[in-house]
């Protein structure tokens, strides 16, 4: 399925040292930190519980909570909408290496099973629910520096073992399309391991948001939703009282209560007219303190879940104490990128650069400009300054500005960065502002052809 087992019978290159590890020889790990290493799906179910109690909650059950779904969707969607650019270092400068083979893997198709946005969203959900995200780097057996596929792994099927200062990953891979699984050991160089907060170097695993920060908030939110569902399903009949001028017997009260529930409770009887005899009257009760606390509790749980996932509450619809409109929305959006999304990006960039590039001449970095743009007027003023519009030195060319807005380059002087040229001696009429992009000599172009090509 993953083309892993087709390598049997092929000799590994001498320069690569494969881990000398037998799965049967992997010892049982005991730790005193309270962390538990996940070996298979059954142990995961025992670890998280069946969801019947407050403390037990699985990923599938948690995603039935709208606040959890919104947080995971928001974080994953924000990262999936960015491009991971590949850069080439040229001394103190850098240039885009969009012809690098890994650019396609991280931005279009990491493997035949999914697209790059699907992969990044899967990594985010894996970290939210299980603490860590893993991916197998399937290398060319004849050239280990060439990565053929980047295959995301289910965190529940990965077991981490620390030996002699290196991590080894035992992964349960499907032999066929059935349920048979085969444990395979990989060296740390072949696994992208995106750890999260609370990473334990001894166990090689991180803390799960669902198991720790949101372990109480999510079940409580679901219980509050169930209470509200029951109230609306029954037609909220507890808010009605029937009054009669004469005293009713016990049998009459019971018959009247059953009649009223049968005729007026449930969604199918909403709006049915009430017909009472013997001077009967229907009175509507005011909202009780319990009802008010239920509504307040549901609102609080949304904010509590958002806090656990590191997402601003207003971005998932909780706007009771703030606004999601106005001039401050762009600033709050940039704050979301800086404080919520940027930690994920740092982990992805560091692990990718450490294990996918042979030399330090190449590195990967996410382009966050799409999510940090301000209003059009402010953006236009920024670009005007960037190309030297105030007669000062620019730091971007017109073509670079056009590239950020998905426009084709114009070439010529538009590809040059503007530098004002000092007037000649005795020339008092020279004006730098009239020179435009050709007012000075352009800086040396750092994006020259790499004489060595792309080694990866």
From TrEMBL:
- Pfam families under this entry? Phage_portal
Q: Where is the composition biased (Low complexity)?
A: 447-456
Residue ranges for the region (Disordered) are: 1-21, 419-456
What highest taxon heads this organism's lineage?
Answer: Bacteria
NCBIfam families from the xrefs?
portal_HK97 (TIGR01537)
Question: What is the official name of this protein in its record?
Answer: Phage portal protein
Q: What is the organism of origin for this protein?
A: Paraburkholderia lacunae
């Amino acid at each position: 399925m993953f083309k892993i087992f087709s390598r049997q019978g092929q000799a590994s290159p001498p320069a690569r040292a494969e881990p000398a590890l037998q799965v049967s020889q992997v010892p049982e790990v005991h730790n005193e930190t309270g962390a538990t290493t996940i070996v298979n799906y059954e142990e995961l179910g025992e670890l998280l519980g069946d969801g019947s109690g407050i403390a037990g909650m699985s990923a599938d059950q948690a995603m039935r909570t709208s606040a959890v779904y919104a947080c995971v969707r928001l974080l994953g969607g924000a990262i999936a909408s960015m491009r991971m650019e590949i850069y080439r270092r040229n001394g103190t400068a850098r240039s885009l290496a969009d012809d690098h083979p890994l650019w396609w893997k991280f931005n279009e198709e990491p493997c035949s099973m999914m697209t790059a946005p699907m992969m990044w969203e899967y990594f985010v959900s894996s970290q939210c629910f299980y603490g860590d995200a893993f991916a197998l780097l399937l290398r060319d057996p004849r050239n280990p520096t060439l990565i053929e596929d980047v295959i995301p792994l289910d965190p529940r099927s990965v077991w981490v073992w620390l030996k002699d200062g290196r991590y080894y990953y035992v992964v349960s891979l499907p032999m066929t399309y059935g349920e048979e699984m085969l444990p395979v050991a990989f060296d740390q160089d072949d696994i992208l391991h995106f750890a999260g907060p609370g990473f334990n170097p001894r166990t090689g695993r991180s803390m799960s948001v669902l198991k720790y920060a949101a372990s109480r908030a999510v079940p409580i939110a679901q219980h509050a939703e169930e209470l509200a569902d029951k109230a609306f399903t029954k037609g909220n009949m507890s808010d009605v009282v029937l009054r009669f001028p004469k005293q009713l017997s016990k049998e009459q009260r019971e018959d009247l209560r059953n009649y009223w529930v049968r005729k007026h409770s449930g969604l199918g009887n909403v709006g049915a007219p009430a017909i009472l005899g013997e001077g009967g009257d229907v009175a509507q009760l005011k909202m009780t303190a319990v009802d008010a606390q239920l509504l307040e509790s549901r609102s609080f749980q949304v904010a509590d879940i958002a806090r656990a996932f590191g997402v601003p509450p207003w971005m998932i619809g909780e706007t009771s104490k703030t606004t999601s409109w106005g001039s401050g929305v762009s600033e709050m959006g940039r704050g979301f990128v800086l404080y919520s999304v940027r930690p994920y990006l740092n982990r992805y960039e560091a692990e990718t650069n450490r294990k996918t590039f042979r030399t330090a001449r190449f590195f990967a970095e996410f382009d966050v400009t799409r999510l940090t743009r301000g209003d059009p007027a402010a953006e236009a003023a920024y670009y005007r300054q960037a190309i030297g519009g105030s007669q000062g030195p620019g730091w971007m060319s017109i073509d670079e500005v056009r590239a950020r807005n998905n426009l084709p380059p114009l070439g010529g002087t538009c590809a040059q960065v503007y530098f004002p040229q000092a007037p000649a001696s005795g020339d008092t009429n020279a004006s730098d502002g009239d020179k435009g992009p050709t007012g000075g000599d352009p800086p040396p172009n750092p994006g020259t052809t790499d004489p060595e090509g792309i080694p990866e």
